[in-house]
């Protein structure tokens, strides 16, 4: 039988266990849009119209939204969308329905990623009283360095998390279930539970942050209890054809004490055997990791040219290929999505052809080149040698390295992608040449302008002319 071409391989439709058929194998990964506004952080429809219309018409097989936080008190970054307790009230719910309609306007299904940052919620992100600590399975603070400056900054930004009580766990389960219900009733094709990158579900799954000795911790199996409960209870109210996915770490990639690949493999085993999950996305790492390729890739040019497909030599372009190959040994029919590191059409096709994964996740690429499936990867007028996404190199990293506080400096490279997401939301094109110093300078100017406007509004509201006008009315 004649071997399929690279385009044919990534263009194949895929029907998930729930019955949802994806038109091809390319998935727009979750990337936080950072566009929602206080006080309730509802979906910002006009900006999402600019952003999601591009992704909708780009011919992805599936879109997954950026993180939607399930508890308004705890955001992971300013601008996260929140599925709050008033989300089903019409004045808020209409924006959810419109978001679903925009994202799926060209026929591509879209899932909502539901998340909770846990101990990774910085002070000032979310509507919670000052001094309220973030939550974690156990009271384990983030550690990014031993210098006094790092420790002081971390204490100010993240503080020491509070170990969750059984009441806290019950409340967060109810929050996630509400998120799934809102996604379903708004018209989205499904939802994804974010269990990777050191957020709350990942914290429960990792022995580093889960040191409990109750039903929710103590063994690898018990650390799965929260995720099992969420999947079971969400499936009760959102049966097929509603799609349910989980994003999971392949490991924490820490020097010691974190989730190992063997432990992660057993977690994946339950997900693919439980009969309730439609696909699993594989990623890896957390804020404290040292070796994850995804988290160390901002300054590397991973490919100079598109590799050739050969049966004798696999390309292995993605960061977590080794773990994905171990997952395939489970012999499950549940599709695996591999995200992180893909840039070439041939690398993506080779991963599918070798059964390393069934779905290809594109995150940073989807920000820098939103319509890359239609314009490059699925375009037959572009040959395999030329079907190569631009590198994800972030310029000006010397500035991030120059900042002595790790909690600030280490977070600057990802700001490049948030900055470009905001550009897309404002109707502009991505700027791949923007540097970290430029982005920091623009952020400072925007903050000063915002504060100046707030001050002027307060002055005007309390001015004699304003008072006289109110009396005349």
Describe the structure in your own words:
α2 (45-56) runs parallel beside α3, α2 crosses α15 and α3 (90-103) crosses α5 (166-186). This protein is 38% helix and 11% strand. The chain is of the alpha/beta class. The strands form three sheets. An eight-stranded parallel barrel has the order 3-4-6-9-10-11-12-13, surrounded by five helices. A two-stranded antiparallel sheet has the order 1-2. The protein contains 17 helices and 13 strands. Mean pLDDT is 89; it is low at 291-298 and 465-473. β10 (243-249), α8 (261-273) and β11 (279-283) form a beta-alpha-beta unit. It has helices spanning 6-10, 45-56, 90-103, 148-157, 166-186, 200-205, 225-237, 261-273, 321-328, 345-353, 364-368, 372-377, 397-402, 406-409, 412-425, 436-461, 464-472, and strands spanning 14-15, 21-22, 26-28, 62-69, 81-82, 110-115, 135-136, 162-163, 190-195, 243-249, 279-283, 336-339, 359-362.
- Which sequence of SSEs, written as H and E, runs from N to C? HEEEHEEHEEHEHEHHEHEHEHEHHHHHHH
Strand residue content: 5-15%
Envelope shape: globular
| Fraction of helical residues | 25-40%
By secondary-structure content and strand pairing, the structural class works out as: alpha/beta
Give the count of helical stretches. 17
Radius of gyration, rounded?
22 Å
Between the first and last Cα atoms, what is the distance in angstroms? 83 Å
Oligomeric state of the chains? single chain
> Roughly what is the average pLDDT, rounded to an integer?
89
Instruction: Compute the number of strand runs.
Output: 13
Can you summarize the main beta sheet? Answer: 8 strands, parallel, barrel
The spatial strand order of the largest sheet comes to 3-4-6-9-10-11-12-13
Poorly predicted tracts of residues? 291-298, 465-473
């Amino acid at each position: 039988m004649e071997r399929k071409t690279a385009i044919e391989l990534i263009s194949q439709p895929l029907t998930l266990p729930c019955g949802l058929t994806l038109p091809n194998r390319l998935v727009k990964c979750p990337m936080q849009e950072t566009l929602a506004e206080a006080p309730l952080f509802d979906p910002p429809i006009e900006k999402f119209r600019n952003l999601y219309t591009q992704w909708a018409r780009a011919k992805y097989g599936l879109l997954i939204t950026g993180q939607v936080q399930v508890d308004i008190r705890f955001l992971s970054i300013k601008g996260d969308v929140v599925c709050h307790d008033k989300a089903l009230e019409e004045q808020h719910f209409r924006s959810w329905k419109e978001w679903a309609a925009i994202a799926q306007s060209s026929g591509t299904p879209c899932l909502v990623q539901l998340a909770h940052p846990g101990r990774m919620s910085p002070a000032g992100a979310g509507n919670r009283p000052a001094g309220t600590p973030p939550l974690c399975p156990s009271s384990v603070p983030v550690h990014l360095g031993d210098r006094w400056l790092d420790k002081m900054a971390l204490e100010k930004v993240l503080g020491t998390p509070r170990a969750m009580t059984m009441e806290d766990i019950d409340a967060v389960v109810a929050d996630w279930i509400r998120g799934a219900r809102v996604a379903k009733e708004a018209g989205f094709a499904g939802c994804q539970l974010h269990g990777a990158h050191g957020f709350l579900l990942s914290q429960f799954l990792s022995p580093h942050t889960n040191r409990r000795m109750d039903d929710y911790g103590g063994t690898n199996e018990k650390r799965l209890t929260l995720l099992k409960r969420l999947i079971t209870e969400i499936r009760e109210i959102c049966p097929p054809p509603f799609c349910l996915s989980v994003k999971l770490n392949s490991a924490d990639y820490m020097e010691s004490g974190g989730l190992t690949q063997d432990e992660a493999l057993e977690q994946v085993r339950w997900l693919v055997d439980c009969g309730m999950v439609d696909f699993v996305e594989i990623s890896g790492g957390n804020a404290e990791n040292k070796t994850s390729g995804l988290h160390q890739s901002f300054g590397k040019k991973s490919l100079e040219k598109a590799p050739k497909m050969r049966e004798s030599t696999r390309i292995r372009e993605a960061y977590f290929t080794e773990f994905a190959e171990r997952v395939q040994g489970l012999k499950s029919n549940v599709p695996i999505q591999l995200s992180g590191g893909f840039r070439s059409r041939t690398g993506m096709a080779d991963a599918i052809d070798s059964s390393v994964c069934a779905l290809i996740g594109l995150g940073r690429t989807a920000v820098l080149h939103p319509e890359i499936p239609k314009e490059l990867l699925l375009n037959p007028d572009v040959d395999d040698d030329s079907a190569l996404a631009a590198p994800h190199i972030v310029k000006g990293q010397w500035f991030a390295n120059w900042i002595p506080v790790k909690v600030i400096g280490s977070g600057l490279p990802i700001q490049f992608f948030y900055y470009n997401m905001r550009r897309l939301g404002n109707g502009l094109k991505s700027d791949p040449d923007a540097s970290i110093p430029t982005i920091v300078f623009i952020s400072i100017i925007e903050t000063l302008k915002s504060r100046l406007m707030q001050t002027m509004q307060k002055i005007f509201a309390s001015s004699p002319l304003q008072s006289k006008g109110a009396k005349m009315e």
